[in-house]
Amino acid sequence: MKDYVVKDIKMAKQGAERIEWARRHMPVLNYIKEEFQKTKPLKGVNVIACLHVTVETANLISTLQAGGANVALTASNPLSTQDDVAAALAKGGVKVYAIRGENEKQYYENIESALKIKPNVTLDDGADVIATVHSKHPEYLKGIYGGCEETTTGVIRLRAMAADGALKYPVIAVNDAETKMMFDNRYGTGQSTLHGIINATNILLAGKNVVVVGYGWCGRGVAMRAKGMGSNVIVVEVSPRKALEAAMDGFRVMDMKQAAKEGDLFITVTGDVSVIRKEHFKLMKDQAIVCNSGHFNVEIDLEDLGKMAKKVNEVKTDVMEYVLDDGRRIYVLAEGRLVNLACAFGHPPEVMDMSFANQALSVKHIVENHKKLKNEVYKVPEAIDNRVAKMKLETMGISIEKLTKEQEKYLSSWSMGT
């Protein structure tokens, strides 16, 4: 088993400096790390992490190691790896297998290499490790206590597996913790998506018609931030309730065919396949920009677009130009992959502080309780979610109100009346 596969181990110093900068903005995770160093709740536990290899992830890995875990890390997306971070982790003794721009074959080879740690706990961002174990390596199942899943797309996959009786070990849906979903997905995705788009294109967002496809927590965040930058935001949604919410939030809501005619910039955040496809490309303006901030690169049907194009050019880094038969040009960012990670740095450390605090405490929960857990998808225990929120407030210097005994009695009683 190779100790690591990275682009250039000489990049380690730069990566270490960036990891340290992020650490200073992740106070909750730092607190948990200090606690783990004292109590060693993960002593001897083998953990495989298939996550975006970023400075924030590096601090999660360091926290798990402080708790006594042996960790192998591989990328959850071919374009999200920060090569200097991978080098710094490898230099620090982590078994890391990740190179930015790796092809599909290399991507799965790296997962295979990381799996040789013989994991007791799996951490996923998209459920690729869980899928690989279930489909190719059932021999590892007996040693796995449980896993955690970080993103909406992965949770959807795992709930489908559980419903079919195919899930062979318990998984905690870290994505569904309120201190993850409401903050990471909304504020993290909202800010980092626009950061990626601006990095790749340097376009002015003010005055643009920005079409946000999907109005979950990620879509809410993107729409909110685009509106704040002066964009005219259009929301495309399939859920009547979410569409109604978007309308009440002040956004124009319409179907994709109508939006395709009006949009200057399209951002997909649905977790579903082919939400922008041939029938929509036919209607788009010249020089429309299309990008994705959902986990997998399936939301924009690039196969359709490729067949429609008479010429495809890379006009600048991370920007592909598709020239159609009628001369219209459609620009696709980051090959339809996560634009916030491929073209920028991903979520800010302040929001990943909460997400990865949930991850670390959920790993501890799995190790301590795995014998009681069934092969189901669990929510993060409410006590963990509340603890993370409380710690975050404390690090921000915010105090909150407490119920009096009279108030507690009133809320728990049916007999006190009005």
Verbal overview:
This protein is of the alpha/beta class. It folds into two domains: 227 residues, Rossmann fold (3-Layer(aba) Sandwich), CATH 3.40.50.1480; 156 residues, NAD(P)-binding Rossmann-like Domain (Rossmann fold, 3-Layer(aba) Sandwich), CATH 3.40.50.720. Helix content is 45%, strand content 17%. The protein has 17 helices and 16 strands. The strands form two sheets. It has an eight-stranded parallel sheet, with helices on both faces. The longest helix is centred in the middle third of the chain and has 24 residues. The radius of gyration is 22 Å and the shape is globular. The termini are far apart. The relative contact order is 0.13. The mean pLDDT is 96.
Fold topology:
Layout: E1 4-5, H1 12-23, H2 27-39, E2 46-51, H3 55-66, E3 70-75, H4 83-91, E4 95-97, H5 104-115, E5 121-124, H6 128-136, E6 146-149, H7 152-163, E7 171-173, H8 178-201, E8 209-213, H9 217-228, E9 232-236, H10 240-248, E10 252-253, H11 256-262, E11 265-268, H12 278-281, E12 288-292, H13 302-308, E13 309-316, E14 319-324, E15 329-333, H14 339-342, H15 349-369, E16 377-379, H16 382-395, H17 405-412
Parallel strand pairs: 1-4, 2-3, 2-5, 3-4, 5-6, 6-7, 7-16, 8-9, 8-11, 9-10, 11-12, 12-15
Antiparallel strand pairs: 13-14, 14-15
Keywords: Cytoplasm, Hydrolase, NAD, One-carbon metabolism
Main location: cytoplasm
EC number: 3.13.1.9
